[in-house]
Amino acid sequence: MERRGFLQFSLLSALTLAWKGPKRLFAFPTPEGVRVQMPVRSWEKVEFSYTSGQQTYPGIVVRLPRKADAANNDPGEIYTACRICPHQACLFNYEMEYRKIGDMVGVTLENPVFFCRCHMSIFDPAQKGKVIFGPANRPPWRFSVRLEKNEMIIDGVEEGVGQFGQ
């Protein structure tokens, strides 16, 4: 890692620790990608940053609940997405108070969602990022993920990331 990149990473790490505490500082660069601690409980999230070339992409991982017909030891699935809204590049948030979001825009929501406050796009992580409401015409871009015990290695981002409004 170049000196400038190391200094930027160190500063970001320090700010993250100051803002969110050590529990949420899970992402760190490795030669093979970014290691991210997997969320444990249903609907829990972990945020991270992934750098490819000169571009850094904010990401989020959400632990989805296990399906009703799944075995008792099934931990459920994970959904990983880039937090850049595909509509016009605003950052969306993960909203646990989904009923309030649904009431605000006039739709019934059944679970936590990704919500872009810029233009009110709503994405459902339980349906692979399906657009539930708003002007976005596609789900958020995805990251490629490899699983390794209780960690994920983020090692790529979906082609076309950053091509907005298409």
Verbal overview:
- This protein is α+β, with helices and mostly antiparallel strands and 166 residues long.
- It is 16% helix and 35% strand.
- The protein has 2 helices and 11 strands; from the N terminus they run H-E-E-E-E-E-E-H-E-E-E-E-E.
- The strands form 3 sheets. Strands 1-2-11-10 form a 4-stranded antiparallel beta sheet, with no helix packed on it.
- A hairpin with a 2-residue loop joins strand 3 (45-52) and strand 4.
- The longest helix is centred in the first third of the chain and has 18 residues, at 3-20.
- It is globular and about 50 Å long.
- The model is unreliable at 15-29 (pLDDT under 50).
Kindly state the percentage of residues in helix.
Answer: 10-25%
Total strand segments: 11
SS element count, helices: 2
Largest sheet: 4 strands, antiparallel
Secondary-structure element pattern, one letter each? HEEEEEEHEEEEE
Quote the average pLDDT: 82
Radius of gyration: 16 Å
As a percent range, the share of strand residues is 25-35%
- Coarse structural class: alpha+beta
Name the overall outline: globular
Q: Largest sheet, order of strands side by side?
A: 1-2-11-10
- Alpha carbon gap, first and last residue: 34 Å
